[in-house]
């Protein structure tokens, strides 16, 4: 699910494969951010503890077929309420944002919505692509993607913010690769548009 963007609209080959994308992983505490990070880094489940600062890893993701690989520098930032004011420092100059939501914790979705909209409405984050990871979809009481989209009010993020809602289970890695591939595609399109505008101004 997303706001009208699809992989068919922006080829993944526009960016050099050696260019590293700076991506910040945000979300409430206990949403599974660090599990997402280390599943992507090591392709295995790693027991984690609440992040008090940040974790950082560099990873390469296959784009499939002959499209090569994309390089990401991922920053996983603590989601406790006292740490959230620091998010702004990490998203400054970010190429993309991964926002992880616990889809089995309906009581905190409203809180997640508030933080998501707050960070995307910052002037410096205008237009930065957002991958919303609906984590813990393997649990029986998890919300559907349609419910998540509605409760997070993703349609209200604005036309300038590309977003994609990805079903995922970080423990086994389901949905994470597909989500990053889509995020990379959104980043690619944004940078292509920025380059075109610069050329028009020359």
Automatic annotation (TrEMBL):
Keyword Membrane included in the entry's annotation: no
- Name the positions where Mg(2+) binds: 34, 51
Q: Where is the signal peptide?
A: none
User: Which CDD domains does the entry mention?
Assistant: Arl4_Arl7
GO MF annotation, one: GTPase activity
**One matching Pfam family, short form?**
Arf
Q: Which InterPro entries does the UniProt entry name for this protein?
A: P-loop_NTPase, Small_GTP-bd, Small_GTPase_ARF, Small_GTPase_ARF/SAR
Would the keyword RNA-binding turn up in this protein's UniProt record? no
Q: Which UniProt keywords apply?
A: GTP-binding, Lipoprotein, Magnesium, Metal-binding, Myristate, Nucleotide-binding
Which residues does GTP bind?
27-34, 79, 135-138
Q: Which SUPFAM superfamilies match?
A: P-loop containing nucleoside triphosphate hydrolases (SSF52540)
Record family assignment = Belongs to the small GTPase superfamily. Arf family.
Task: Describe the function of this protein.
Answer: May play a role in apoptosis. May act as a tumor suppressor.
The identity of this protein, by name, is: ADP-ribosylation factor-like protein 11
Which lineage? Answer: Eukaryota, Metazoa, Chordata, Craniata, Vertebrata
